[in-house]
Design brief:
This protein has 310 residues and is of the alpha/beta class. The chain contains four helices and 22 strands. Helix content is 18%, strand content 30%. α2 runs antiparallel to α3 and α3 packs across α4.
């Protein structure tokens, strides 16, 4: 472990210039191992139990440039108002990571463990920003991502399940692989005065939706999945109402499950949204062959793409 360099990094001090470098020219901090935060005190109240931790590493106002932390174990990092540029966190374990008003640019978190982290908390009214960041195969399950901005970022086979409150903007980002049990929120219910989040130029064409929810977004500048399992629909609000009129009176459990899903979509749909998507295999699982045929018949005139008329 390059202890001297690490101490300088966390305190924002300049490096000596003689530290070891990787073949690519980055500061070599690979396989750095920090101790896990530990509980030093437990406070019990009527509504919660609070664990007071020691071993948290707080970093304020630092600029990290061209550093390779690959395969490191870095629990308990907290970034406040930092700039992280051209750094590699590939295969890092980053448990208890907390980020406030920090900008990441041209960084990589490939195969990183980002479970249960807080990646986007604001500080002094400023969000965290991720620009040209690669999250390929990162594990981001149950992480908080609000209110962050993601620009030109790659989410390829990224695990996002359990992220039910992503109050972030996504601009020119791409998603590949399955998005299961994920909810994107355009409105910040904790800060109602905040402007709504946006999705612009986002490419989901190689993604697969499974209980993926977009609340309050205008999705007209989004590419939806392009395979035979997804039905892309224009005039989505009218389609949802027609589907509701069909499924709601039917007493079977599958139809009622579909009805509940349709009512949920109608409730949370953005006012200006025109386009939507259905996954045929999900409707088949919920309502059977008859339900799937009914969906395709009802949305047929508004459907487009390879699934039209299937």
């Amino acid at each position: 472990m390059n202890t001297e360099a690490w101490i300088k990094l966390i305190h924002g001090h300049p490096l000596a210039g003689s530290e070891p470098r990787t073949p690519e020219g980055r500061l070599d901090m690979r396989r750095l191992h920090l101790d896990d935060p530990r509980t030093v005190k437990t406070i019990r109240t009527d509504i919660a139990q609070i664990n007071v931790l020691a071993g948290i590493t707080e970093i304020r106002g630092a600029i990290w440039q061209s550093i390779d932390f690959s395969s490191s174990r870095l629990p308990g990092l907290q970034f406040f108002d930092c700039r992280i540029r051209d750094c590699l966190f590939d295969r890092c374990k980053l448990t208890r990571l907390r980020v406030w008003a920090t900008e990441f640019s041209n960084d990589s978190f490939r195969y990183a463990d980002l479970c249960d982290c807080s990646l986007g908390s604001s500080w002094q009214g400023r969000p965290s920003i991720y620009r040209d960041v690669d999250f390929t195969n990162a594990d981001m399950r149950r992480s908080g991502n609000h209110p962050a901005e993601y620009i030109n970022c790659m989410f390829k086979n990224t695990k996002l399940s359990g992220c039910h409150d992503i109050r972030s903007s996504f601009i020119n980002c791409s998603f590949e692989g399955e998005l299961r049990d994920v909810t994107f929120q355009a409105h910040d219910w904790e800060n109602k005065a905040a402007p709504p989040k946006v999705m612009k130029g986002v490419d989901f064409s190689r993604a697969k939706f499974w209980h993926t929810d977009f609340r309050g977004f205008d999705l007209d500048d989004v590419r939806f999945p392009e395979d035979d399992d997804h039905v892309i629909v224009g005039n989505i609000r009218d389609c949802l109402k027609r589907l509701h009129d069909y499924f709601n009176p039917r007493p079977d459990v599958g139809s009622q499950r579909v009805t509940a899903g349709l009512e949920h979509q109608l409730r949370w749909m953005g006012a200006g949204r025109k386009t939507g998507v259905f996954r045929k295999s999900l409707i088949l699982e919920m309502a059977g062959e008859e339900g799937l045929r009914a969906l395709l018949r009802i949305v047929g005139k508004d459907a487009r793409g390879r699934a039209t008329g299937t």
